[in-house]
Amino acid sequence: MKPTYCSPTRALTRRRLLAAGLSVLAWTGSARAQATKPQFRVGYLTSQLPDYYLEFFQQRISELGYSDGKSIALDIVNMDGRLDQAGRLVLELAARKPNVIVLLNVASMNAAKQAGLSLPFVVNTSLDPVETGFAASLSRPGGNFTGIANLQRELSAKRLETIRDLLPKISNLAILWDANGPGPKVAAAEYEAAARRRNWHFLSLPIWGPNPDFEGAFQQAVAKKADALVVVSNPLVAKHRDSITALATRHRVPLIGEHEYWSGNGVLFTFGANFPDIGRRMAYLVHRILQGAKPADLPFEQPTKFDWILNAKTARALGITIPGSALVRADKVIE
């Protein structure tokens, strides 16, 4: 068979056609990538995983017409209970140039404010956003922060009333709290004030991360004969929930949690704002911002749904008789 030769001109033409074809393919691929690039990017800095708001946040975002990975890109970054990482992680999220960032604790809010970030933030805060300087007022925040002011601290007195209903002879209250957390510091002071008004003895049990001495704290509670112990919610203590509840069971200390995620074995009761409702409301505020609203004009919302979850199994193990009136009032009773 004779070899086939190609003239320089024909070879050049083929190279040009090949190059042109590759250019067309490259342009088509680029256009397709641009067409499928999410329209919006949302940063979400979670305090720890599992995140008890995230499922409901994502659910509501979907209901509002956003498809993760298509019309919206949701960047989830996990703080893993480390408040000292808040500044770095907030800046990391901001560098991705999101349209809005969701923050779930006061430490990350402080980090965003100290960094002078001007992008929109939707937050869930246990402290008054006006008193802490994040909003001019609840109705018109006036800055780049809006979200949920979850009344966590205002519920402190209500929890103490509930403790008295279940433990009418209580006279000594202990509070377990993260000494490095800005929210827990305020909470401990408020619990102390509420306990003093009832003429109860108050035992402060501060702990420090990253390796808190929970055993030592419970030994103090037992030595001081605490009738009940309230654990103040924040990322650090939530990360060690199982260890804390196990210690409460072993030392036979009635443990009270501020949120539903503490409602398992070893906890007498929890009372706090409804997680699903907060997650969904944060998603709606994100939606409003993505549609052009400014955080300055979006009022800070407050919870309207609260859950009192009573653990009858734990009460029986501790020898506590639950009044029938309490069983009727509880939103959920764990048998």
Strand order of the largest sheet: 7-6-8-9-10-11-12
Beta content: 15-25%
> SS-based structural class?
alpha/beta
**Helicity level:** 40-55%
Order of helices and strands: HEHEHEHEEHEHEHEHHEEHEHHE
Low-pLDDT windows of residues: 1-35
Please give the CATH architecture of the largest domain.
Answer: 3-Layer(aba) Sandwich
**Shape call:** elongated
What is the CATH topology descriptor of the largest domain?
Answer: Rossmann fold
What is the CATH top level name of the largest domain? Alpha Beta
* Biggest beta sheet attributes: 7 strands, mixed
Number of strands: 12
Average pLDDT value? 87
**Total DSSP helices:** 12
What Rg do the Cα atoms give? 27 Å
CATH superfamily of the largest domain: Response regulator
> Structurally, how many domains make up the residues?
2
Taking the alpha carbons of the first and last residues, their distance comes to 90 Å
Structure overview:
This protein is α/β, with parallel strands linked by helices and 335 residues long. The protein has two domains: 40-151 and 275-297, Response regulator (Rossmann fold), CATH 3.40.50.2300; 153-273 and 307-334, Response regulator (Rossmann fold, 3-Layer(aba) Sandwich). 42% of the residues lie in helices and 19% in strands. The protein has twelve helices and twelve strands. The chain has helices at 8-36, 54-63, 86-95, 106-114, 156-166, 182-197, 214-223, 235-239, 241-251, 275-290, 312-318, 324-329, and strands at 40-46, 72-78, 100-103, 121-125, 145-149, 172-178, 201-207, 228-231, 255-257, 269-273, 306-311, 332-334. The strands form two sheets. It has a seven-stranded mixed β-sheet, with helices on both faces. The longest helix is centred in the N-terminal third of the chain and has 29 residues, at 8-36.
